[in-house]
Design brief:
Elements lengths: L5 H26 L4 H13 L2 H25 L8 H18 L5 H30 L3 H22 L40 H18 L1 H11 L1 H6 L4 H18 L1 H9 L10 H11 L4 H24 L6 H15 L1 H17 L1
Length: 359
């Protein structure tokens, strides 16, 4: 297969993958006896047709940016971090412990402390599988999957037996004394988001994290070491790059980014720690990173798309007879074509560009 131009790799491959996913989704909707145009109109109107819809779309996209960046960071070190779910839940635990037991005079100070706690807890949960691979040879894919289940069991135990307030039946912590402003509460933005929406100022933190990851990977010696190690471990060793150090740092940074996702929903939307606080964003982050070509700015665009699919799918379930589970089908199709069938799309475009050169 001949290589395709870089612009085609960055633009055409994702677009063609999306088109193929849309065609398959249309066939699925037709097969269950529903109207694809009605589904599309409902999704667009519900996710993009109002400031209220945008509020939910951006809320979901915020979580997906963090987890997509987490996968991206590990990928550039040649690692496939599938533990975003567990790392995000541990990040939520760090936030809960910080906000429940430390009094803060203002939400800005609480946000800074909670961010550090979420990053540290997530980094620890990511660094352990990194150490197991670097020192013991345990494959990071297997260990991160296992750590998702361990994290879930740990959170359930803590919520049921440790942090649940007396007399409360629900397995959840008490509400935090301090939270962070939603965009509907921010002066200037409140004129746009006139209704209460869950998107909050952690959206800006996600965008800052995007720039920080880009600067780290492409503008620092550490980023060069991470990317060199991911391209070729033997060459990196020959150049003096220490494998254990690189793997540990990459997985710790990846876990920290996933842990910071909980600022959005634990501190922002829920105002307390609940079971399954990650809301599946850890797994969706894998698709976000793949579709964003493991580039921070591509991750932002991909996260917006999946935020649209999440919110639009919820609107379909509310206002049409199409099952809400269709959004899972559409997400699966997008993942299928942007991930598993990515080579097929590239091959199609390679043939197309080869014919154009011959002509």
């Amino acid at each position: 297969m001949r290589p395709i131009p870089r612009w085609a790799d960055l633009v055409l491959v994702p677009l063609v993958s999306l088109l193929l996913a849309a065609v398959c989704a249309t066939l699925v909707i037709l097969a269950i006896g529903q109207n694809p145009m009605e589904a599309l109109e409902t999704m667009v109107a519900g996710a993009l047709g109002s400031a209220y819809g945008w509020g939910y779309t951006l809320y979901y996209a915020t979580s997906f940016i963090f987890t997509g960046l987490a996968v991206t960071m590990a990928f550039h070190a040649g690692l496939f971090n599938i533990g975003g779910e567990g790392q995000a839940q541990l990040g939520g635990l760090g936030i809960a412990l910080m906000l429940l037991f430390v009094p803060f005079p203002h939400w800005s100070i609480a946000l800074l402390a909670a961010t550090v706690a979420a990053a540290v807890f997530g980094a620890i949960w990511g660094a352990i599988p990194g150490w197991l691979q670097a020192k013991r040879g345990s494959h990071v894919v297997i260990t991160t999957i296992m750590f998702n289940y361990i994290a879930y069991a740990l959170i359930v135990w803590i919520l049921v037996d440790v942090l649940r307030p007396a007399g409360q039946a629900e397995p959840a912590t008490a509400r935090f004394a301090v939270g962070i402003p939603a965009l509907s509460d921010v002066p200037g933005l409140s004129s746009i988001f006139t209704q209460a929406v869950p998107v909050n100022i952690s959206l800006f933190m996600a965008l800052i994290a995007c720039v920080a990851v880009w600067a780290l990977l492409w503008r620092t010696p550490l980023g060069y070491e991470i990317r060199a190690f991911g391209k070729s471990e033997p060459a990196a060793r020959y150049a003096g790059i220490r494998p254990v150090r690189t793997v540990m740092i990459a997985m710790a940074l990846s876990g920290a980014l996933a842990g910071m996702m909980s600022i959005n929903n634990v501190m922002g939307d829920s105002g307390r720690l609940l079971q399954n606080s990650s809301e599946g964003a850890g797994f969706i982050g894998i698709a976000v990173a793949l579709m964003g070509r493991n580039h921070p700015f591509g991750v932002v665009l991909s996260a917006l798309l999946f935020g649209f699919l999440y919110q639009g799918g919820a609107e379909i379930g509310l206002w049409t007879s199409i099952p809400i589970d269709l959004r899972v089908v559409v997400q699966g199709l997008v993942i299928l074509f942007t991930g598993a069938l990515d080579h097929m799309v590239r091959q199609m475009l390679s043939v197309l560009f080869s014919r154009r050169k011959v002509a």
